[in-house]
Design brief:
There is one protein chain. This protein has one domain. It is built from 9 helices and no strands. The longest helix is centred in the C-terminal third of the chain and has 30 residues.
């Protein structure tokens, strides 16, 4: 209980740094759950504006980590066996011919988590998807996901009040 009390008295700058660091870690280490971190944000926000800023920080942290995963995937081509490297090259050509489909898949993954965004970040890097497109679509999807997670309780709770 003392931990919660000390966390609730942290300065907004420290809260922001913690949120950023935790969401970067959650993007790289899949078993650290970003959604739980985001669901805790209303406890630290002193206003709606502060909550929005924390959502932006969480989104930035997630995308910083996902960019690292993307670039790890982009560097994986040098260590792939020849058969797999040929398949990746074939898919890279398909991706280049249909960038909108690839962007749509990244958007769905970053918004809904299916297929897992971690995996999609690796694949997008390995296939050398246009990085600014990956970053933009992934950021919009994560912001929608995190915003929805924080907004749903505020929409549902009034139904249960007397």
């Amino acid at each position: 209980m003392d931990v919660l009390k000390s966390l609730s008295t942290m300065s907004p700058v420290w809260v922001g740094l913690w949120v950023y660091g935790l969401t970067v870690a959650s993007a790289i280490v899949p078993w650290i759950n970003a959604e739980i971190i985001v669901l805790s944000l209303p406890a630290f926000a002193t206003s709606r504006e502060a909550l929005f800023v924390l959502l932006l920080i969480a989104t930035a942290g997630q995308m910083t980590g996902k960019c690292a995963v993307y670039w790890a995937g982009a560097g994986s081509g040098r260590v792939l066996p020849a058969r797999i490297a040929a398949a990746v090259a074939s898919w890279r050509d398909r991706l280049a011919a249909r960038p909108i489909k690839a962007a749509a898949l990244v958007f769905v993954s970053s918004t809904f988590g299916l297929p897992p965004f971690y995996l999609m970040s690796l694949v997008a890097g390995a296939l050398r998807m246009n990085f600014p497109l990956f970053l933009t679509v992934g950021t919009v999807g994560r912001l929608l996901r995190f915003g929805t997670l924080v907004l749903i309780p505020h929409l549902v709770l009034p139904w249960f009040r007397h």
